[in-house]
Design goal:
261 residues, alpha/beta, 2-enoyl-CoA Hydratase, Chain A, domain 1, six-stranded mixed sheet, three-stranded mixed sheet, globular
């Protein structure tokens, strides 16, 4: 798929979305905020894509809105709404995708880049990664799902610290507080992302999708309702081809070859 501000490719069951405005720190302009949800929708709806991977070209992951296109006054509201709508559709596509999402964070991520960076089911960070909320510095509140995701990932009190103190978080601290899954060397980030994405793409896609759905709704669901949903879901998954393959291979010497059906 051809885009101006991102790369979008498919390989070995993985759909890759790559921010590609390195000279502008991969910041979000109107074109990118139109292209991102379009690419995500195409990968989400493609049954041959069984995992989505998000990363960036260059030394910076994403620094949020491109402030050079804003004027700094009330005339910015329509443009900001346009940027936010596209970004939010993109994040929503990834969070609700019926397949695993993995992100590989290289370098600085700030502002509107923060939500996409941490919305993955697996989040890898290079050693040089740095996470910054940044909005208070220009008198704005958070977007991109940051106020939804952070309390769920690190807890309300730590989220409040991140949002109101607005101090940079390095990769080791991000791993310690649960903001990322794993920190790897900068040189190994791309290879590790590819390896992990391929592993997820070869897994039981429908089971992953249902597990993801259950986790997403769990914080707003009463226990007994969640238990009932778990029961219905696991019983229903016994009708999948992946379960049949997993059951047949159980106890054997070879792992099952899942097909995502």
């Amino acid at each position: 798929m051809e885009y101006e501000t991102i790369d979008c490719t498919r390989k070995d069951g993985v759909g890759y979305i790559v921010f590609d405005r390195p000279d502008a720190h991969n910041s979000l302009n109107e074109t990118m905020c139109t292209e991102l949800p379009d690419a995500a929708q195409k990968l989400v709806s493609d049954d041959d894509v069984r995992c989505i991977a998000l990363t960036a070209n260059g030394a910076t992951f994403n620094t949020g809105a491109d402030l050079t296109v804003l004027s700094g006054d009330e005339s910015d509201e329509p443009l900001m709404r346009s940027l936010v709508n596209g970004l939010h559709e993109f994040v929503s596509q990834l969070v609700h995708a019926p397949k695993p999402v993995i992100t590989g964070v290289n370098g600085v991520v700030a502002g509107g880049g923060l939500g996409p960076a941490v919305c993955g089911d697996v989040v890898l960070a290079g050693e040089s990664a740095r996470f910054e909320f940044a909005y208070p510095r220009i008198g704005l509140s958070g977007d991109g799902g940051s106020t939804y995701l952070l309390p769920r990932l690190v807890g309300l009190r730590r989220a409040q610290e991140i949002l109101f103190r607005d101090e940079p978080i390095d990769s080791s601290e991000a791993e310690a507080i649960g903001l990322v899954t794993e920190v790897v060397s900068d040189d190994d980030l791309k290879e590790t992302l590819d390896t992990e994405a391929t592993r997820l793409a070869s897994g039981p896609t429908k089971a992953y999708a249902e597990t993801k759905r259950l986790l997403t709704k769990s914080l707003e669901t009463p226990l007994n309702t969640q238990l009932a949903d778990e029961g219905d879901t696991i019983a229903g998954l016994t009708n999948t081809e992946d379960f049949a393959r997993g059951h047949a291979a159980f106890g054997g010497d070879e792992p099952p070859e899942f097909v995502g059906k």
